[in-house]
């Protein structure tokens, strides 16, 4: 069958995805919004999660909370009886199980239901998956089809172009298109180089990830090192201030402020307040 090389935009109206949120289990669910008309006025309404069928990039420096955030998303979706494919590239799957179990117990959820609904591909111990994108995608496609998966997490996408960053844009585009083809809501975790500005969206591989995906969430941490910083933030010297910001979203509106969050003792994410309010309050 011949594929049309051009078409009127209206011809694909029925193919356009519905705009609604996929819950993350965090305050991010209120930070994405849509605009609706009510009584002749346009009002903002919380989307209820990241946009359905979007591919979101979560980037940050090491130990800033990226993996904890995607694990909480996976748990939330699994608890709601949606299947999640978790491609772990950095940490072996047995460590992922331990981390998930701790969070599930802390959140008072059903462990047996959650672990049944999270399907894992362990690329951390499989060199072929890390080096051969086709082999990994074939396995992902098989899992999506057989397990009726709705959401895909790759932690981290950076690990798939390690030592070959010249190919970063190509590899990210391949997996982005793959998730679109299979109608998946996806999250890529990407690592920052130490030389990059912490608050920027840029990750290893340059801006390869941020330019391709539908939206980017930047997580950051600041070590309180001076007396001035301690007085300004009202935090003791040696403590860590953690922030999160939606850097952009093509599919829907979003809160543009930087927010403060904390990591609980169980490793869950708790978004507290906008940074400006946090400073004023303190």
List keywords for this structure.
alpha/beta, Rossmann fold, globular
List how many beta strands DSSP finds: 14
Low-confidence stretches: none
What kind of sheet is the major sheet? 9 strands, mixed
The value of Rg in angstroms is 19 Å
Helix content class? 25-40%
**Structural class designation:** alpha/beta
How would you describe what is shown here?
- There is one protein chain.
- The protein is of the alpha/beta class and 282 residues long.
- The protein has one domain: P-loop containing nucleotide triphosphate hydrolases (Rossmann fold).
- It contains ten helices and 14 strands.
- A hairpin with a 5-residue loop joins strand 13 and strand 14.
- Helix 2 packs across helix 4.
- The longest helix has 15 residues.
- The radius of gyration is 19 Å and the shape is globular.
- The N and C termini lie far apart (65 Å).
């Amino acid at each position: 069958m011949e594929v049309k090389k051009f078409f009127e935009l209206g011809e694909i109206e029925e193919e356009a995805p519905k705009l609604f949120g996929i819950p993350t289990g965090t305050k991010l669910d209120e930070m994405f919004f849509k605009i609706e008309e009510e009584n002749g006025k346009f009002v903002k309404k919380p989307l209820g999660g990241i946009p359905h069928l979007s591919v979101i990039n979560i980037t940050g420096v090491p130990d800033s909370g990226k993996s904890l955030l995607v694990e909480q998303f996976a748990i939330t979706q699994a608890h709601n009886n949606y299947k999640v494919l978790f491609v772990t590239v950095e940490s072996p799957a047995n460590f992922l199980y331990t981390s998930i179990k701790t969070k599930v117990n802390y959140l008072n959820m059903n462990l047996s239901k959650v672990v049944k609904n999270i399907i894992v591909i362990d690329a951390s111990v499989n060199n072929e998956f890390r080096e051969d994108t086709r082999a990994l995608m074939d396995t992902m496609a098989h899992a999506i089809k057989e397990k009726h998966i709705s959401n895909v997490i790759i932690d981290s996408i950076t690990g798939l172009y390690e030592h070959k960053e010249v190919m970063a844009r190509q590899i990210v585009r391949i997996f982005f298109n793959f998730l679109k083809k299979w109608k998946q809501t996806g999250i890529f975790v990407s690592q920052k180089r130490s030389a990059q500005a912490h608050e920027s969206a840029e990750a290893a591989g340059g801006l390869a990830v941020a330019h391709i995906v539908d939206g980017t969430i930047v997580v950051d941490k600041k070590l309180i090192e001076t007396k001035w910083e301690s007085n300004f933030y009202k935090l003791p010297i040696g403590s860590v201030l953690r922030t999160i910001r939606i850097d952009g979203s093509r599919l829907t509106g979003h809160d543009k402020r930087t927010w403060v969050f904390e990591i609980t003792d169980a490793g869950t994410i708790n978004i507290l307040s906008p940074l400006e309010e946090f400073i004023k309050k303190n």
